[in-house]
Amino acid sequence: MQMTTPLLIVNPCDEEEDNMAMLCCHSNKGEMFLMTRYPDEDELEITLDDEPSSLDGVKVTLSPTLLKIEIAAADADALNGDDVLEITHSTDASELAEVEETLQNILKGTGTYISNI
Fold it and tell me: 109 by DSSP, 3-state: which?
């Protein structure tokens, strides 16, 4: 599955939401992707167009223009039948450190984070 977005919206630790880490984007076609995790939870949650799924073992790779999310084939229903979501983004380079911090918070202890920044 592929999406294109102008911006990855992140919050590494939302104090008003019990320290939840959150990454969100809206595609050029109006699709919404949301990945969140509370620090005391063992799983992260992925929401694609209002359909939430709790997952573990997620692998995420971040590069300056691509965010690649890989999930287990058994969880493919979370991504409309795909086990890979590639999000092409135009996030400003100065904001990528916060995106990286957010992804590390979301995946710590429950997934794999790979940085190509």
Answer: coil
Using DSSP's 3-state secondary structure scheme, residue 101 falls into helix
Quote the pTM value: 0.95
Average pLDDT over residues 66-87: 96
Q: What angle do CA 71, 17, 14 make, to 5 degrees?
A: 75
Mean pLDDT over all residues of the chain? 95
Q: Domain-by-domain residue ranges, the chain?
A: 2-115
Give the mean pLDDT of 57-72. 97
The number of residues making up the chain comes to 117
